[in-house]
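Per your request, structure below.
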C-alpha cells in the first residue's frame, strides 16, 4: 500500500515488455498517444513465447516504463493490444506509483 506523503503524487506506471524489434514503433505510438516520455531497458526472461535471452539483438526484449495518468495509460495499452498482441510477444500492465515532480509527467 502506498503511504501518505505530501511530497509524492499518485500516478500510473504503464509497463510494456515486448520484442526488441518493436522498440521504435512502441516509442512512436506511446508519444503520439499522449506519453510525455518513457524509459527503455533491455530485458530477459521466459514466458509463453519461450526464453528471451538477448544473446543477439533480435532475440531480446525491451521493457518500457511510461509514467502517465490513468486515461493515457489505458489508451496506450489498448492501442498496443490491438496493434501487436496477435503477432508479437508483448505484455502490458498498469501499476499505481507515487512520484516527485508531478509536473514532469
Amino acid at each position: 500500500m502506498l503511504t501518505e506523503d505530501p511530497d509524492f503524487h499518485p500516478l500510473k506506471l504503464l509497463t510494456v515488455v515486448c520484442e526488441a524489434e518493436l522498440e521504435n514503433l512502441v516509442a512512436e505510438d506511446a508519444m503520439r498517444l499522449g506519453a510525455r516520455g518513457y524509459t527503455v531497458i533491455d530485458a530477459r526472461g521466459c514466458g509463453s513465447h519461450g526464453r528471451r535471452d538477448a544473446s543477439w539483438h533480435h532475440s531480446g526484449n525491451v521493457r518500457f516504463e511510461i509514467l502517465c495518468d490513468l486515461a493515457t495509460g489505458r489508451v496506450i495499452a489498448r492501442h498496443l493490444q490491438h496493434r501487436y498482441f496477435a503477432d508479437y510477444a508483448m505484455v502490458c500492465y498498469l501499476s499505481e506509483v507515487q512520484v516527485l515532480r508531478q509536473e514532469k509527467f
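The chain has a mean pLDDT of 90.

Regards,
D.
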